[in-house]
UniProtKB/TrEMBL annotation:
The lineage of its organism: Bacteria, Pseudomonadati, Lentisphaerota, Lentisphaeria, Victivallales. It comes from the Bacteria. InterPro entries: Kinase-like_dom_sf. It comes from Victivallis vadensis. SUPFAM superfamilies: Protein kinase-like (PK-like) (SSF56112). This is Lipopolysaccharide kinase (Kdo/WaaP) family protein.
């Protein structure tokens, strides 16, 4: 990169010595991992470099937010340096060792597999309570913005943007946007387990919070569903990918779901499309269900996960309360329980009428 009169500030003198006189040159040696028209993220060894082509105000704000978080004693990915010039600004952070987002780790370890996450969640609660009980307001506090390193058994915030000292309005009217982080684990947790988790997070009345949260989360889903519906049908990478004539499902880890152990259902275009969409609606609602693997619009077919011979009909248990919040009612015949005792909604016809 040309010398554009970069001005650098470093976290410590030791970091300044580590990065040298021209840290901007790390961009040329780095590998791009994310990009949009105005911002790029590169990885170079153990460093991440966020390069914003606009004025330095945005990354400068993030740098200041990071310092605020560190002063509260909250673990954050290490912010090393901020550079500003006429060409834009660069924020350099250190990679958190062998870490992945809590959302990804939880899905891979405790949803894909029949594991028990109690110990992991206890550790997460210890970290999350420190954030919730701090004097800060984080406008985007969710498990995708928290990293977990299994080797270190440590958590760290990865996104500091917008964090500020909590004002009166934040504490009274925006509190839910942070406390709802516990609700993001409800996919594999019973009502009783959720209430214990919410209590451990310091929620004063877990029962009242849980009931209200189901209503608020459901209202948010209905509000955003038209956009999510369009994205799923358009091959938006978070949900689906076009593969020849097939629009294939992408799982929460951005992996294309394998076409195996499935059955094909043929029908009218509206029918197969609505069954396909039912999968994404239930995924966003965090309700276990029979997966849809692919949609073939040209041949009017949908590929459904085959129901295991060991699956038996069962009552909805706690999940009916969650469907009630969506104003959807189910019967025992709509649900199945597998050999591990996991309950899933198998009758997608129940959902397709709404999506």
């Amino acid at each position: 990169m040309k010398n554009c009169n970069w001005s650098w500030r470093f976290a410590t003198p030791a970091i300044a010595a580590e990065l040298g006189d021209r840290p901007e040159l790390l961009l040329e040696a780095g590998r791009e991992v994310k990009s949009n028209p105005v911002r790029q993220v590169f990885r170079c060894g153990d460093y991440f470099l966020k390069y914003d082509k606009r004025s330095g105000r945005r990354l400068r704000s993030e740098w200041n937010c990071a310092q605020l978080i560190e002063r509260e004693g909250i673990q954050l990915v290490e912010h090393l340096a901020l550079g500003e010039s006429s060409a834009g600004s660069i924020l350099i952070t250190r990679a958190f060792p062998e870490a992945e987002a809590v959302s990804d780790y939880f899905y891979r370890t405790y949803i894909e597999q029949p594991g028990e996450p109690a110990v992991f969640l206890n550790n997460f609660v210890h970290f999350a309570r420190k954030v919730l009980e701090s004097r800060l307001y984080h406008p985007d506090f969710h498990i995708g913005n928290v990293l977990y390193s299994p080797g270190l058994n440590r958590f760290a915030l990865v996104d500091a943007q917008g964090v500020r000292k909590a004002g009166w309005f934040d504490r009274w009217f925006r509190r839910y946007s942070m406390e709802r982080i516990g609700m993001e684990f409800r996919f594999s947790r019973t009502r009783h387990q959720m209430l214990k988790l919410l209590a451990a997070l310091g929620i004063a009345d877990p029962e009242e919070f849980y009931v209200e949260a189901l209503v608020r989360e459901s209202a948010a889903l209905w509000h955003e569903w038209p956009r999510r519906r369009r994205q799923a049908l358009a091959g938006y990478p978070k949900f689906s990918v076009q593969d020849g004539s097939l629009l294939r499902t992408v799982d929460p880890l951005r992996r294309t779901v394998p076409l195996e152990n499935y059955e094909v259902l043929e029908g009218e275009s509206a029918l197969v499309e609505s069954l396909f969409l039912s999968h994404f609606f239930l995924q966003l609602a965090q309700i276990p269900h029979r997966r849809v693997l692919a949609l073939d619009r040209r041949n009017r077919q949908v590929y459904l996960e085959k129901i295991s011979s060991s699956t038996v009909p069962t009552a909805a248990a706690d999940y009916q309360e969650r469907l009630n919040a969506l104003d959807i009612h189910s019967e025992t015949r709509d649900w199945g329980k597998d050999e591990f005792g996991r309950i899933s909604l198998w009758n997608l016809d129940l959902i397709r009428l709404y999506v």
